[in-house]
Q: What sequence folds into this?
């Protein structure tokens, strides 16, 4: 007779073995899932990009590379933006592209300094829309205290793009002594989130008009380096930070659990979420843990400093909705578990497929 | 009665006034010319990007920004690549994207260190093609001594891109004391080119199969930081370097003439060009001075050091075809003139329109 416990162990063993296999890509063609930030993206990154480019700075596969030049410790990051629609409540592709790269730098604890901007425009794109995007970038850069110092524009024929795609890369300087890396996370650490989840994902989805829902939801897009700097000043036990963009909280916490070889247990009741987000996620049939945020980050902090970290986050205007949402334990290594509102426990895997393409 | 001389002066005066007007964009929609690197690109950059982002690092509108962090002097640059076809004799979008950003850094005299890579893929793009592009990037990075340390992949629906678009940004360190800027160029300087012009532009054009020409031409895509480092070691009178990409030699030299408020006089007979390039350009009805190179640069050097600079260029494998192609004079400021093979002189303006869209 097989007990439930034994069955669970076997399942975990199978998951573990599958994960340790060398990444191999079996698809013959690129699918939307390869850009969704979840399992297919990870396989593509491991099997194609890491395999070809392998070097010690790339290998951690963080959202930014960290290196020294002269006496400066720098962070360097890039993201392309293909969000549809270009304009949505609370933001547009312009401030998203500035804040997104600012945040990738901020997650290394860097002070963002300089951004590049690379536009790929479709022939026929209205100049008025481009001017709006650019004005929004300028406002966001100004608000974040960064300068856009270099750029490039390409134009492709009508039908070979979708209005406007935008890449930003950024450089920041790291001025504190902490190394914020996924493998620093340890059993006993607390897991915090800086605010309610899923607002960006649901807002963009609703802006497409495919669901007939009226809502006053706005994207949470915001620059996070200020709240991060406050946190790093307030507590010295911050292990790792990650903004919860594509793939949502579930995916990024899975990545960290695997990198650190620990388990993370979420407390479902503790995860902050607006009622509109919960409702829309239910209608869309999407677990809110996979919804993208563009102004929220997850912090792994030494357990004893969890309350101090929470107080620091809540003291910042972008962190008033912060919460402690889980803890790090030793077993089962590499897995994320959710203690549900109803008292059960389920495994939370990385995002599979792409329920919400072109969210950023 | 109006003499020819008076007429010419009036024309020059009108050109001059037009140029000094505040950039204003009259188009309502983006056209292919806005991405061609010529006049429309300049207007877009001035009227939209510079107007919104204005800061002292962006203002020179060079191919890279130069700034200090800590005790290091750094260069930072970005370019997106939309070349069609993705694979062509002598290269592909992968090595083009690596060499292109390496060269933008090299033109500031920087030693390129780290690159980012941002992919925008079309759903359905063959994984085999992506793997080829990535392998080519890895080889080019290896050859140039740079590391690809951070990246991002987005996927858009079928019909919303054209296979694969690619952005690279790069960081380099400047280890010499020279400031290479357009406004350092002075009357008396010599103008050199590192090799024959137009091979990339014609190769990509022929690879589209729209002209029924057989040719063994290859793209000249190559990393230029090595030949630049040798030049900066050999002579201390280098004023300004610019690689002759979109818009060709004519456009970049015009930009420098305007920035430095000097005139440049080309000697048509001295401009190195393969017979196949000359022939294809004639068939296409394009002045070869507007054809893109991806492994050639123009150097402005103090006149007395022209021969030493030429010898340095020719001593490098990428500079065997180098030549002195012109000189800087005081008048008429901001203009580029060509002394033709037939003894006449004509004005060479920046590129107008886009005769060869998606060349890089």
A:
């Amino acid at each position: 007779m097989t007990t439930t416990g034994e069955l669970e162990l076997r399942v975990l063993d199978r998951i573990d073995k599958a994960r340790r296999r060398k990444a191999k890509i079996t698809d013959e063609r690129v699918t939307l899932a390869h850009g969704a930030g979840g399992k297919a993206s990870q396989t593509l990154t491991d099997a194609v990009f890491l395999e070809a480019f392998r070097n010690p700075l790339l290998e951690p596969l963080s959202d930014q590379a960290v290196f020294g030049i002269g006496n400066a410790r720098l962070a360097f990051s890039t993201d392309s933006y293909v969000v549809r629609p270009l304009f949505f409540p609370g933001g547009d592709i312009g401030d998203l592209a500035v804040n997104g790269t600012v945040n990738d730098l901020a997650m290394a604890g860097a002070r963002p300094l300089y951004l590049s901007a690379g536009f790929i425009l479709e022939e026929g794109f209205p100049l008025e829309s481009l001017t709006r995007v650019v004005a929004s970038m300028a406002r966001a850069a100004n608000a974040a205290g960064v300068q856009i110092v270099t750029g490039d524009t390409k134009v492709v024929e009508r039908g070979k793009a979708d209005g406007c795609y935008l890449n930003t890369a950024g450089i920041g300087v790291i001025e504190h002594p902490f190394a914020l890396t996924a493998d620093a996370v340890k059993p006993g650490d607390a897991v915090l989130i800086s605010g309610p989840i899923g607002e960006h994902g649901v807002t963009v989805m609703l802006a497409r008009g495919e669901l007939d829902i009226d809502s006053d939801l706005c994207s949470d897009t915001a620059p996070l380096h200020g709240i991060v700097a406050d946190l790093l000043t307030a507590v010295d036990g911050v292990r790792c930070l990650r903004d919860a963009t594509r793939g949502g909280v579930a995916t990024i916490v899975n990545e960290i659990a695997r990198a650190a070889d620990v388990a993370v247990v979420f407390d479902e009741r503790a995860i902050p979420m607006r009622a509109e987000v919960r409702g829309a996620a239910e209608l869309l049939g999407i677990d809110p843990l996979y919804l993208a945020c563009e102004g929220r980050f997850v912090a792994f902090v030494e357990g004893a400093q969890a309350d101090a970290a929470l107080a620091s986050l809540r003291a910042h205007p972008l962190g008033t909705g912060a919460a402690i949402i889980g803890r790090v334990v030793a077993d089962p290594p590499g897995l994320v578990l959710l203690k549900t509102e109803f008292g059960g426990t389920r495994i939370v895997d990385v995002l599979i497929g792409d329920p919400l393409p072109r969210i950023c």
Q: What stands out?
A: Residues 55-174 of chain B form a domain with the 60s Ribosomal Protein L30; Chain: A; fold (CATH 3.30.1330.10). The mean pLDDT of chain B is 94. The two ends of chain B are 49 Å apart (CA to CA).
